[in-house]
Amino acid sequence: MARSETESERLKRIAILNARLPRTRAIAQGVLRDPKGRVLLCELSYKREWDLPGGVVDPGESPATCVEREIFEELGLSVTVGRLLAVNWLPPWRGWDDALLYLFDLGVHHAGELDPALYLRREIAGAHWRSIADAAAHVAPYTARMLEVAADAEHPLYLENSEPGRTR
């Protein structure tokens, strides 16, 4: 008869697995639109490409909570996460390991709701409303592709490197 493990043994086993199993980063971003249908892009102080609002999910934090928190901290804007637009697996890029990016619909907001005085300046140099077509000139290629495929999706998509993923 098999002996059940003690709580101490169970925690040791989990610690070993946590140390050895892959750890994929989680990123949460949102598509925030203005009444003209343009999307909000953040001009970041620490990299050349602009990006969608959001950020890296903290340990123990849900992606939906993350995107709401990040947008409040960085832009001073309170948003409520809407429906999930896509989950996008991103391969290693520019020294970063792979990641899962959760893209949420954040609804429509008016440009006047953004106050540059509230921006977290160590991260946000500016915020700009751009059409999805114009976004490609400012964002990383994977972000441009993801916006083209997922921003108006009728149901959540699974993407790999911003391309439709496997269907079988």
Automatic annotation (TrEMBL):
Question: Which UniProt keywords are listed?
Answer: Hydrolase, Magnesium
The UniProt entry, under InterPro entries, shows: Nudix_hydrolase, NUDIX_hydrolase-like_dom_sf, NUDIX_hydrolase_CS, NUDIX_hydrolase_dom
Q: Which cofactor does it need?
A: Mg(2+)
One Pfam family here = NUDIX
Instruction: Give every Nudix hydrolase domain span.
Output: 22-152
One GO term in the molecular function aspect is: hydrolase activity
What's the superkingdom here? Answer: Bacteria
UniProt xrefs under PANTHER family: GDP-MANNOSE MANNOSYL HYDROLASE
Q: Which family does it belong to?
A: Belongs to the Nudix hydrolase family.
Q: What is this protein called?
A: NUDIX hydrolase
Name the species this protein comes from: Ornithinibacter aureus
